[in-house]
Design a protein that fits this description.
heterodimer, A: alpha+beta, five-stranded antiparallel sheet, four-stranded antiparallel sheet, 11 helices, B: alpha+beta, Ubiquitin-like (UB roll)
Chain lengths: ~260, ~160
């Protein structure tokens, strides 16, 4: 790792001020992606601003028909939360299958979505459940948050404070995990709400995306059979050592059908 | 930049001057002489470096020492009481839960986090929990047996 200045802050305002003063400052949440990236010398921030001391950013609460999860809430706490498990079991299931237990003990929802890894699990939940991302400056609709590979709508100095998820009628997340990393080769969140059906795919493309043809078919008939014959084009999907674009396109259909069946 | 890190390590307060970029595992091994925690892959995959920070298992190659200022850290050295092994360590010995032994400290620390959450884990739950711990002797079968026996001993033999 290259040298940097470490700073632990206790409030969002302090974090913003520290970022402003730093030559090339970087926020750290759980550090589960950032620290390995820095160890490989792929990132070289001048200052690392640790948000773990900002108590106000952690925690889970129910507000009316929404589950609100603080940005610094660890994956293990989302997976184990009685509130999440009863209101949105698909979300607890997703959080409980990120990485491994030690990664889930450190990694956070805010850190994960700010990083916007194309193979991360949480983007499928943010888009698939129609969540809202709350920052120190505004609210961003889940559909508008992810703008590309490792790219989000966040501005410089903007800090995620929480993510709120409307409670769906039913939902399920199914992924085909990479057997070593547990990242999603393809992961699909399917959710039915009063407003219709949402199908969000992570792992397959440069960034999470919805599949309107599947959503329309499931809105008419919420069954795995309704997805028969609906395919996604491989053109814009990822090819890497783990899977070709064609294979990923195939997996989207398989994972979506399994998610619909799991949602019941 | 350097920083003074003070933590409770295995029940005792310790302190050391480290660089801002020093990893927890480096501080444990190189500054504090606690070499029971191993560095295997150094890329947060293998789990040889698992320790507990404030009661939760973490990979100490992927945590900065500075992040642990004020924390309570437990390593493999903190488990035995004098010459009496912790029941989980004893179970690994009884069940031949190690071959070369390199992964063992991480396996034991990971197992204890599992048992803290789930005092009576099934074989399937143990295998799922060990996703983040690699044994390159591929001796998983006896490791799983050890953890099941260790959990039973910790429940008082029931």
């Amino acid at each position: 790792m290259y040298s940097f200045n470490y700073r632990r802050v206790s409030s969002v305002d302090e974090a913003v001020a520290a970022l402003g003063k730093a030559e090339d400052g970087k926020l750290m949440a759980g550090g589960m992606t950032l620290l390995p990236t820095m160890k490989q010398r792929l990132a070289q921030p001048s200052d690392l601003i640790d948000l773990s001391g900002v108590g106000a950013l952690a925690g889970i609460k129910r507000e009316g028909n929404r589950i609100v999860i603080g940005a610094m809430t660890r994956h293990a706490d989302v997976a184990d939360s009685a509130e999440v498990r009863s209101a949105i079991p698909a979300l607890a299931h997703l959080a409980g299958r990120i990485g491994d237990p030690q990664v889930r003990n450190r990694g956070t929802i805010g850190g994960s979505i700010a990083n916007a890894d194309p193979a991360a699990d949480y983007p499928a939940a943010v888009v698939g459940l129609g969540a809202t991302v709350h920052t120190n400056q505004r609210e961003i609709a889940g559909d508008d948050f992810f703008t590309g590979m490792f790219d989000t709508a966040l501005e410089d100095g903007e800090i995620i404070t929480a993510v709120s998820f409307p409670v769906p009628e039913k939902a399920a997340y199914v992924k085909f995990p990479n057997p070593a990393s547990r990242y999603a080769v393809v992961g699909v969140m399917v959710a039915r709400t009063g407003g219709g059906v949402r199908v969000a795919v992570t792992g397959a493309g440069p960034s999470v995306f919805r599949v309107p043809a599947m959503e329309a078919a499931l809105a008419k008939s919420f069954s795995a059979a309704a997805l028969d014959g609906i395919t996604v084009a491989a053109d814009d999907l990822n090819t890497d050592i783990h899977a070709s674009a064609e294979y990923r396109a195939h997996l989207v259909g398989v994972m979506a059908a399994r998610a619909v069946a799991a949602a019941g | 930049m350097s920083v003074r890190v003070t933590m409770t390590l295995n029940g005792k307060e310790v302190s050391a001057e480290v660089e801002d970029r020093t990893l927890l595992v480096s501080m444990l091994r190189e500054k504090l002489g606690m070499t029971g925690t191993h560095v295997g892959c150094d890329t947060s995959q293998c789990g040889a470096c698992v320790v507990h920070v404030d009661g939760r298992s973490v990979k100490s190659c992927t945590v900065l020492a500075a992040q642990c200022d004020g924390a309570s850290v437990t390593t493999i050295e903190g488990l035995a009481k004098g010459n009496t092994l912790h029941p989980m360590q004893e179970a690994f010995r009884d069940n031949h839960g190690l071959q070369c032994g390199f992964c063992t400290p991480g396996m034991v620390m990971s197992a204890l986090d599992l048992v803290a959450r789930n005092p009576d884990p099934s074989e399937h739950e143990i295998r799922e929990w060990l996703e983040g711990n690699l044994c390159r002797c591929t001796g998983y079968h006896n490791i799983v047996k050890s953890i099941k026996a260790g959990a039973q001993a910790m429940r008082g033999g029931k």
